[in-house]
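Journal club prep — side note

Before the paper discussion, L.F. wants everyone to see what a predicted structure for a comparable chain looks like in token form. Sequence:
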Amino acid sequence: MAKPKIDKTPVQLTTEIATFARDPFFNSWGGIIRPRDETLATRGGGRGIWIYADIARDGEVFAALEKRTLGLLSRALVVEPASDDAVDVQAADAIRAHFKRGRINRLTRTMCDAILKGFSVSEVMWGVHRGLILPMQFKARDQRRFVFDDDGNLRMLTPVLAGAFQAAGHFVLASIHR
């Protein structure tokens, strides 16, 4: 007996239904998700995420965070090509060589800030190197400048009336929880 051929996935199977907009436990105002961290709500005193910076100054907390960060940094960098095609193999080789110059360790250390604060953001500064567009520098950014929208996308707060700017491809996000 021949199996039926399926040309398209039914719409109800490809549509996301458990969105932030439908989540009764997420506070959203103007399309921006508000933090639901109990510590920030009960002890933050208006200081927000920066109470976690104070926690990191504790010797035991600092030691635990440093141990976790160094453990992560001790792992070997693995870059695999997307396929066996020559262009993918060449791209993987270029990325591997590019990141062996220490850039990935600096980025990893910066992004480990997410362990304590829940998320960390670095801006990617792109450039051309040997004919390839590569990330040349990563600049850590203050978490207070960023929020998440109802779709879970990172948004950068700006002083203009629009409020939040989405810049896909400009930022690297490490997120432990939202």
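L.F.'s comment for the group: The mean pLDDT is 78. Keep this in mind when we get to the figures.
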